[in-house]
Every structure is written in C-alpha cells, then in structure tokens.
Amino acid sequence: MIVDEKTYKNILIESKKFASNAKYGTHLSSFGSEGIDFRELSEYNEGDDIRKIHWPTSAKKQSLYVKKFDESKNLSIHIISLLSGSLYFGSDILKQELLARIVAILSYATIFQKDTLNSAIFIDEVKHKFKNIKKSSSVTSIIKQILEYEVIGSSIDYEALSKYISSIKKRSVIFLVGDFMSDISALKVSSKHDVRAIVVRDKFEENPKNLNNISFINPETNEIVSSLPLQNYSNMVECQNHIIRQSFYKYRIKSTQLNSHNLNKKIKFI
C-alpha cells in the first residue's frame, strides 16, 4: 500500500494525541491491577483475603492456606495485526489505513499506561514482530510496516494464528485487529489470555448504498467473484458477521466493530 508522508505523519500525530487524551480506566484489561503472577502458598494470617484461600491445600494440612501473588500492575499487551487482502477496500479510506490508526491508538495507550507492548503482523505466519516496546517512538516502525505491507493476495491462516497465540506464555491481553472476512472456524484460543477482537469495517459494508449491480474482485485471490445485486452483498456481509460473532462467543472473545466514522467514539470502550 502506497501512503504519502503527510498521511503517515497525520496517523501518528492524531493517534498519539487521541490516546493521551482518552480515558481508558486503569488498564486495557479485565485483569485490573491485581497481581496475576502466582508466587506461593502460605498460612493464613489475619487480614489476608479469604477469597484467596486454597481449599485443597487447607484440607490436606488441616490449616488455612492462601495463595500469594506477586502484584504486578504492568500488563503484557499483544497487538496482532491481521493483514488480509480484503483490507484493500474502502469507500472513504482503505481498511488497511483504518487498521493502522487503530493499532497506533492502542499502542500509544499501552505505552502511556506503562504496560509492556508486543506487536506482530500476521498473515499465514508472523511476518514482523516487535517485542517489549516501552517508548512511543517505536510505534512509528510498527505503523510503517502495516501501511507499507502489500496485502493483495494475502489470506489469514487462523490455525497458525491459534498456535501463535498458544505460544505466548505470559498471561496477556491480546488484541486481534482485522476485518475477519474469511473463514475463521480454525481460530481457537484458551481462557488463559484476555483476547479481544477489533473488527475493521468500511461504512459501505455496514450500510451498502444503491449502486445497482456491482462486480467484486476478491483482493485475497485477485479473482472476480461475481456480479451481485446489492442485497445479496449485504446478506453476505451480515452472514459473515453472524459467523464471527458465534466464534467469538464460543471462545469468550470480546469484540467490537469499528469504521472510520465511529472509531473515536467506540475505541474508548474496548
């Protein structure tokens, strides 16, 4: 994707400003600020949280034992950009650019909250990986890679994506950012992580206008799919939305759908 320098800089400046002004609460995670790393079991002392009593050990030793944690307000955040060919579409701006804006906002917000940022570009495998990012200046490299990647002809391997997520050892907040327009039935995630999906959509996909019959080219294969009446296209998109909602529900993946018009309003509630 060819992006002029002005657009590139605007994405970074606007995203950084938005992230610094937005109120995301304490963290971008349902983990909250409670320590999440288990350390040891110790005998119960007055004042200990009774919710942390470990009953199997307590019954075995005939004395109350509680789980102790290393408190860590620093969360591990992984942002995975799913760069499929279907992102090369847009009635206002390309979905690929919208995805870059979303990733930029999340990245800056993570750094401003002093959490640890890990970012990856994924297609059939990890194409680029950025580890343990602490400085906002590093976000420029991530966004540059996303914007310059040639997505046409690319499709997401969700089985490989599932394996990659499983390889993340530390309990983390994982954002999957993509349009999820292809078959995602192979996507499987464990409850170990707090996984959230951000579905990138164009306003035309959400509310198609009357353009009579439209010829569609599949940007993942470069093939003409068919010449479909508008209603058929609308039904196809809604069917795909239903499928991904079912998959997300099955694996307790929180999700939100964003377009260029609702981005600033809805991304605060992710």
Automatic annotation (TrEMBL):
Pfam families xrefs: DUF58
InterPro entries from the UniProt entry: DUF58 (IPR002881)
Stretches assigned to the DUF58 domain: 42-225
Full protein name: DUF58 domain-containing protein
Originating species: uncultured Campylobacterales bacterium
